[in-house]
Design goal:
By secondary structure, this protein is an alpha+beta fold. The radius of gyration is 16 Å and the shape is globular.
């Protein structure tokens, strides 16, 4: 029987488990190759250099949710949420909200005034979640299906929806 979930700062030693979780958790909606490719968005360097701003929710069975995010190195006002994952067995229980809220609090305490995130235009769940969390969609190059899309954001054909969320100063 698992214990209550504990929120903690991520560690570089979490990398392997997080990558394995991405491959497993997204295996229900993607081919094994697509899930592996998705896990490549999380190279070890994120936890080597941004573990202090990344978070994990775990119980005695292991990591059940995570957020990889960082504060901008180029300015003192922005923070960015790069990747979030929640065990499918625990989705809908507010774990992503818990991670985002903790990230917001830490970012605000560090003087950050805005958090940014991106997602694919096809990821309707992510778009709905970010809007429910109070993120604003940034104007894009084109509107597709009523959404402002940034064309070729991550390279040719890699269109993205961009979000930002203002933080209350601490």
């Amino acid at each position: 029987m698992s214990t209550a979930l504990e929120l903690r700062q991520a560690h570089v030693t979490d990398h392997r488990a997080i990558v394995e979780n991405v491959q497993q958790w997204w295996g229900d909606s993607r081919t094994p190759e697509q899930a592996r490719e998705l896990s490549l968005l999380l190279p070890k360097l994120f936890l080597q250099f941004f573990s202090g701003t990344s978070l994990v929710l775990e119980d005695d069975t292991g990591i059940r949710a995570f957020l990889v995010g960082f504060h901008s190195a180029d300015n003192d006002t922005d923070a960015y949420i790069h990747f979030v994952g929640v065990d499918p067995a625990l989705r809908g229980r507010g774990l992503a909200r818990t991670l985002y809220t903790a990230f917001f609090e830490h970012a605000a305490e560090s003087g950050r005034r805005e958090v940014r995130a991106i997602t694919s235009p096809a990821n309707s769940g992510s778009i709905a979640f970010h809007q429910a969390m109070g993120f604003t969609l940034e104007p894009g190059d084109k509107e597709l299906n009523g959404l402002p899309v940034h064309l070729d954001y991550d390279g040719p054909g890699q269109n993205r929806i961009c979000f930002h969320q203002k933080l209350l100063p601490r």
